[in-house]
C-alpha cells in the first residue's frame, strides 16, 4: 500500500489502539465509564480480553489515552498564554475553544461521572494549565474582579462547548446526526461542535471577560 510522501506508515498496533479508543469512548458515552467493562469493549471489537490487554493493561489506561489529546491541546493553550510579549485575550480564548471543541469533546462522555472528571481534570498538570490561562486572561496586576471575570470566561468556554457536545451526544444516541439529520456517532477525535457555535462561544467568553484595556 502506498503512503503519503513524508508520512511514516502507521503500524498495525497503532491502528488497533485507535480502534480500541474509538469503541471505548463510544461505550463510555452510551453506558458511562463505570458501566463499561473491558469485556464490553473487547466484545464490541470482536477480540479477546487478552488481546485488548496487550494494548492497554487496564480500563484506566484506556481513559488516560482517550483524554491525552485534550491534555496536550490544553497544554498548548497554556504555553500560548505564557509567551512574551503576551498574545491577545481573543487568541487565548480561540485556542481554548479549539482544544475543548476538538479533543476536549471526549470529556462529554464523563460529565455524569464526577470521579472520572476529578481524576482527570483535577490532575496537577491540568490545574496548572488552567491557572496559567486564567492569569493571562486577567491581565497584568489583576484585581480580584479581573481574576473572577477570567474564570468566568474559561467557564463560559467549558460550559458552551461541553453543553453543545452533550446535546449532540444525545442526538447521536437517538440515531440522529445534528449536522446532517442522519445517523450520529461520537469518536475520540471527532469534533462535535460546529464552527458557527465555536465562534459564538468565543464572543460569549470575551463578553464575560469584559474590556481588557
Automatic annotation (TrEMBL):
It comes from the Bacteria. Residues 37-56 bind DNA. The keyword Iron does not apply. It holds the Pfam family TetR_N. InterPro entries: Homeodomain-like_sf, HTH-type_TetR-like_transc_reg, HTH_TetR. Residues 14-74 form the HTH tetR-type domain. Keywords: DNA-binding, Transcription, Transcription regulation. GO terms for molecular function: DNA-binding transcription factor activity; transcription cis-regulatory region binding. This is Regulatory protein TetR.
Amino acid at each position: 500500500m502506498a503512503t503519503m510522501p513524508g508520512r511514516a506508515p502507521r503500524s498495525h498496533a497503532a491502528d488497533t489502539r485507535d480502534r480500541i479508543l474509538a469503541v471505548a469512548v463510544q461505550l463510555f458515552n452510551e453506558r458511562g465509564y463505570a458501566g463499561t467493562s473491558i469485556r464490553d469493549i473487547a466484545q464490541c471489537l470482536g477480540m479477546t480480553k487478552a488481546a485488548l490487554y496487550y494494548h492497554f493493561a487496564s480500563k484506566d489506561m484506556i481513559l488516560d489515552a482517550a483524554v491525552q489529546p485534550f491534555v496536550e491541546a490544553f497544554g498548548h493553550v497554556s504555553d500560548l498564554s505564557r509567551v512574551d510579549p503576551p498574545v491577545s485575550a481573543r487568541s487565548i480564548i480561540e485556542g481554548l475553544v479549539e482544544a475543548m471543541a476538538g479533543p476536549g469533546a471526549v470529556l462529554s462522555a464523563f460529565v455524569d461521572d464526577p470521579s472520572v472528571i476529578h481524576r482527570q481534570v483535577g490532575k496537577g498538570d491540568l490545574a496548572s494549565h488552567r491557572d496559567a490561562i486564567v492569569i493571562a486572561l486577567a491581565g497584568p496586576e489583576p484585581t480580584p474582579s479581573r481574576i473572577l471575570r477570567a474564570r468566568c470566561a474559561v467557564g463560559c468556554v467549558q460550559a458552551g462547548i461541553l453543553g453543545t457536545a452533550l446535546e449532540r451526544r444525545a442526538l447521536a444516541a437517538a440515531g440522529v446526526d445534528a449536522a446532517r439529520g442522519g445517523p450520529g456517532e461520537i469518536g475520540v477525535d471527532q469534533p462535535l461542535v460546529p464552527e458557527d457555535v465555536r465562534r459564538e462561544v468565543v464572543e460569549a467568553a470575551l463578553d464575560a471577560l469584559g474590556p481588557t484595556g
